[in-house]
Amino acid sequence: MKKALLVCAAIASLTSCGKSLTGAGGEVTGVRSVAFNEPAPYGMVLIKRGSFEMGPADKDSLWGINPETKGVSFDAFWMDETEITNAKYRQFVYWVRDSIIRERLADPAYGGNDLFKITEDRYGEPVTPHLDWSRPIPWKRANEDELRAIESVYAVNPVTGEKYLDPKQMVYRYDWYDYTAAALRKHNLDPAQRVRNTDIEVDPNEVIMISKDTAYITEEGEIVNETITRQLSGPWDFLHTRIVNIYPDESCWVNDFNNAYNEPYMRMYFSHPGYDDYPVVGVSWEMATAFCVWRTNLFKQSLNLPAGQVFEPFRLPTEGEWEYAARTGKNEYKYPWAGDDLTSGKDNCFLGNFKPGKGNYTEDGHLITSRVGSFSPNEFGLYDMAGNVAEWTSTSYSESGPSQMNDMNPDLRYNAAKEDPYAMKKKVVRGGSWKDVAQFIRSDMRSFEYQNETRSYIGFRCVRTQIGFSKGKK
Asked: What does pTM read for this prediction?
């Protein structure tokens, strides 16, 4: 008994890291979490925490711009130094393609056999038999039945005979947990915790209604995303499901421009290796969001995190983060490169890819998009924050803009339901593009597009909040 007491005393004098507390004299010394050093995300730049005046840099009567600014502050975050390229987005598309093939290799309808063993599909749903995901698909050893599974993700133009990856099949399903909605006091599962005012008698039978996104694919292969409203019943009510077709809309090159010969871009911009390092376009806000989720899962799996380790996801930047990063925190900067109106530097070389003159797209050296990083970066080390392609943000568009937002990590979000009016599905787009004149590539200019729309001049880049590293020193 005495020996057991001595062991317990020894254990009590240790922290979780084994450091002795015997000399603490009964004071609170703290118990530290297990440290985990994450690597810097590949291709990203750390934007240090800071503040600035968000909004137009000055009054411009010609364009009707009023300098309604708001002082805001941001925590540190990582940001892609360039826009997401065709090559990077193609990795996402091919991951979806290969996942579909792997599932079908175990399906008897496509010649499934014991060589491929699958326990779950790409959505985490149970599937039999089980595939060893660590083994590459043995393309060279594939028999006729296995080739049927591989060929099933391709389609052939019945007129021209051209073979291509079937865009309709490239769908990505993902779940996301709404931490903010789950944390709201009004959504507490314990009615007694919903109101702090002790003068108010809490109704234990109060019915709390929540909205939940769910999705499924019909037997005919149709994607159905819908929002259901139901009584709050548990934490699973805050887990949402979405299914998104993630193949870029190549037809945007034709639909965005009437009476223009843009067929070569439609046929080759995404698939031709000559455009590998060009920014991906034809991607909606919904598709860009799906890419962020996929990238998060890919990165998280590579880290071999300790059990229970909290992980910050990749996401689209908020409107405020984007403007802060583009203007490098300088209130006077209209463009990423300077505080004045100049769009060209030494030897009259343009500082970004935009439309310098009426009908003249090529004066800056490019007709459409340019390779990412073709122009000099801003002071934060970010490329193409003005021109090339405009960029999606996570922020819902409102005419009043920053005035509705908080002054700390400002953002405005609204997850529009399918039945909501289309006008409520606007998302903020920033930066201007290769088709815009100089005024519209200013870092302090706001624009919008509908979340399901795809354009030949809108792309995106990702960000990721940086937790507990910067000490606030400039």
From this structure: 0.85
